[in-house]
Each structure stands twice: as structure tokens, then as C-alpha cells.
């Protein structure tokens, strides 16, 4: 069997946790930040986990993670 290619776009967006789940960063923190409150921007800095229904597709994109 040939080696599988990692999807490079997914590799930049998702990291594997120790328990095998995938973590991601929050969206809406790139531009148009003046109208967003400080609290909202601060809470968007924290990461989040990939939903359980998306785990299989992300695992397929990142075969060696």
C-alpha cells in the first residue's frame, strides 16, 4: 500500500489531544473586531473540541495524527 497523504489544510487547523479527540480554534476573531465586546473576544481565544459527528471525517484527513 502507498503512504497516505495528510490534508495540509486540516493539519494547520486541528491538533490531536491525548485522549484522541481533535481540538480547534474558535472563529470570528480575524477582523471587524471593533464592534465585538472585550468579553466576547477574550472567550473566543480559548479552543474548542471537534463535534463527535465530525470526528471520523477529520480522522480521515489526518491519518498519522
Terminal Cα separation, in Å?
A: 19 Å
Helix % is 25-40%
Radius of gyration: 15 Å
Question: Which word captures the global form?
Answer: elongated
Binned strand content? 5-15%
Q: Describe the sheet with the most strands.
A: 3 strands, antiparallel
Residue stretches low in confidence (pLDDT < 50, at least 5 long) are none
Q: What structural class results from the helix and strand content?
A: alpha+beta
- Average predicted confidence as pLDDT: 96
Strand order of the largest sheet: 1-2-3
Order of helical and strand elements: HEEHEH
Number of helices: 3
Number of strands: 3
Notes on the structure:
It is a single chain. With 65 residues, this protein is of the alpha+beta class. The protein has a three-stranded antiparallel β-sheet. The chain is elongated, with a radius of gyration of 15 Å. The model has no long low-confidence stretch (mean pLDDT 96).
Amino acid at each position: 500500500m502507498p503512504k497516505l497523504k495528510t490534508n495540509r489544510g486540516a493539519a494547520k487547523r486541528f491538533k490531536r489531544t491525548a485522549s484522541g479527540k481533535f481540538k480547534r480554534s474558535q472563529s470570528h476573531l480575524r477582523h471587524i473586531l471593533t464592534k465585538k465586546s472585550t468579553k466576547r473576544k477574550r472567550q473566543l481565544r480559548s479552543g474548542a473540541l471537534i463535534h463527535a459527528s465530525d470526528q471520523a471525517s477529520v480522522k480521515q484527513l489526518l491519518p498519522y495524527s
